[in-house]
Structure formats: C-alpha cells, structure tokens
Amino acid sequence: MKKQHVLGAILLALCVAAGSASSNAQGFPETQTPQAQTQTQPQSQPQAQADETNFETQLFLIVGTNSEVSDSKIPTALDNVMKQLRSTLPYKNYRLATTLINRVKNEGRLDVNSISGPFVPVTSSQNIPQTTPSQFKIRQVKLVRENGQPLVQMSGFYFNSRLAIPVGAAVAANAPPPPAFNYESATLSTDISLREGEPVVVGTLNTGPSGDAIILVVSAKRTQK
User: Fold this and answer.
1) What is the mean pLDDT of residues 167-190?
2) What is the per-residue DSSP string for 186-216?
3) Is 35 helix (H, G, I), strand (E, B) or coil?
4) 143: helix, coil or strand?
5) For residues 131 and 216, what is the distance between their CA atoms, to the nearest angstrom?
6) Rounded Cα–Cα distance for residues 223 and 173 (Å)
7) Which band of pLDDT confidence, cut at 50, 70 and 90, is reported for residue 204?
8) CA 225 to CA 221: how far, in whole Å?
9) Measured between alpha carbons, how far is 91 from 213 in angstroms, rounded to an integer?
10) What value does the mean pLDDT take over residues 141-153?
11) Over 72-112, what HEC string results?
12) Which of 17, 97, 140, 221 sees the fewest Cβ atoms within 10 Å?
C-alpha cells in the first residue's frame, strides 16, 4: 500500500516537471517596447520676394531739319544729347516732336501705339493728314550688371512710324483732287543697353524728300514702388 502512494507521488512529480519543461521550451512572446519614432517635420523654405522694381522709360522723338522751326525748345535733360547731335549731324535746327513716358516692371515688356503731329513739313494747302501714327515696343526691360555697374537692358527695341509723304500735283480747279500723299513706314529695330537715367541716341530715320530726320532718344530709371 505504501508502495502505491510512493509511486503515485513520483508520477505526479514527473508530470509537473514535464509541464514546466514544455512551458519553458515553448516560451512566451517577449513584450516589445515600441520605440518612439521621431517624425521629421518638413522645414518650410523661405519664399523669395518678388522683384517689384519698376522703370520709368522716356522716348523722345526729335526732328532734325534745315527748315525754320516755330519752337526749338528742347528739355534740359537732353543737353548732352543735343551737343552730340549738333556736332555729328548736319541739321541747322531741331525740334521736339513728342515725348512718350511709360512705366514698366523689371523684366517686363512695353507696347505703345501713339499718334503725334506730323514729322514732315505740312502746309495748309496740302491735303494730307496732320497726324502721324507710331508704334513703340520693347520685348523686355531688364536691370543687369556689367563690371559691377548697373545697366538697363532693352531687348527687342522697336519703333515704327507711318509717314504721310506728299506726292500730289497741281490740277485744274474743277477737277477732283488726286491722292495727295502716300503712307511710308519708317522702322528701327535693335537691342541696346544704357546707363540708368542717361538719355542715349538709339538711331535716326529719314522722313523722305524733305531731308529731315526723326531722331530717337531713350532713357530709363528706377522708380519708387
């Protein structure tokens, strides 16, 4: 009887030991501590400020002529230009036909249609227009630097004027008047650079049989916002 109790105790101890070994063999999943992941916040890039530079451009149309002029007054800002013209061109007199003032943004464009008085001498007896249509364009006005000095670059400078050239002849009083003029285009196209605020001569255009010339002078300077 005692042998049976002893045997039962041994079997029970073996079962407990086997269960413990099995549990240790299988193991339990380790509790993994989640690592805090640092999220990289995108850094905001500073926005480049827009270039708000603006220019005031001035286009002076000067007529060089050997005829008498009623008003020979030229702006004092063109004194140096006039000294240059009088020393290089053969005209006796000069007059200011018109001035075009416009504002344009840096790296911007300019396109102007204008009507001014006649560039060629017109008498009251001639049946021709008393006005002259013109077109002035700049593809881009840009502030650049050359040898450390600021320059205003005008790419695609274009000027065109339609001149009424007298061609009519005298006819009998009772006859219908013939065409008294033909429209002819005078055009200048170029790329230029100039010092800021300094007027420069862009070019000259002949106006026909009169022998007069249109002289284009341009300047540009930065303006306040």
Assistant:
1) 75
2) EEEEEEEEEETT--EEEEEEE-STT--EEEE
3) coil
4) strand
5) 18
6) 58
7) very high
8) 13
9) 9
10) 92
11) CCCCHHHHHHHHHHHHHCCCCEEEEEEEEEEEEECCEEEEE
12) 17
d(CA 82, CA 200): 10
Give the C-alpha separation, 211 to 205, whole Å: 10
Region 32-50: mean pLDDT is 57
**Torsion over CA: 187, 86, 130, 217 (sign):** positive
pLDDT grade for 173, boundaries at 50, 70 and 90: low
Cβ–Cβ < 8 Å for 111, 118: no
% the chain with pLDDT above 90:
52
- DSSP code string of 41-53: PPPPPPPPPP---
Smallest CA-to-CA distance from 137 within 98, 164, 100, 106 is with 100
Residue 56 β-bridge partners:
103, 221
Average of per-residue pLDDT values in the chain:
81
pLDDT of 17 higher than 60: no
Rounded average pLDDT over 190-199: 96
| DSSP bridge pairs for 101 | 58
Quick one: tokens of 24?
């240790």
Q: Tens digits of per-residue pLDDT, 51-72? A: 789 999 999 999 999 989 888 8
Structure tokens at 54: 């603006």
Burial of 156 (0-12, 13-18, 19+ CB in 10 A): middle
Q: Cβ of 9: how many Cβ atoms within 10 Å?
A: 10
Number of CB atoms found within 10 A of residue 202's CB: 18
